Amino acid sequence: MIKTIQTTPYTDQKMGTAGIRKKVKTVLQKNYLENFVQSLFDTIGGVQGKTFVLSGDGRYYNDIAIQKIIKMSAANGMKKLIIGQNGMLSTPASSHILLERHADGGLTLTASHNPGGENGDFGIKYATSNGGQCSSEISQKIYEKTKTIKEYKILSADDVDLSKLGTFWLEQMEIEVIDPIKDYLLMMEEIFDFEAIKKLFASGFEFVFDAMNAVTGPYGVKIFEEVLGAKKGSVHQAKPLPDFGGLHPDPNLVYAKHLVDLMYSDDAPDMAGANDGDGDRNMILGKKFFVSPSDSLAILTDNYKYIPAYKNGIKGVAKSAATSTAVCRVAEKLGIACYEVPTGWKNFCNLMDSNRITFCGEESFGTSSSHIREKDGIWAILFWLNIIAATGKSVEQITRDFWAKYGRTYYLRFDFDGIDLDVADKLMADLESNLKSFEGKTYNGCKVTKAHPFVYRDPVDQSETKNGLLVYFENGARICYRLSGTGTNGATLRVYIESYDKNDFDQDPLKALAELLKVAMILAEIEQRTGKNKPDLTT
Ligand code: VG1
Ligand code: CO
Question: For the segment 394-416, what is each residue's pLDDT rounded down to a tens digit?
Answer without folding.
Answer: 999 999 999 999 999 999 999 99
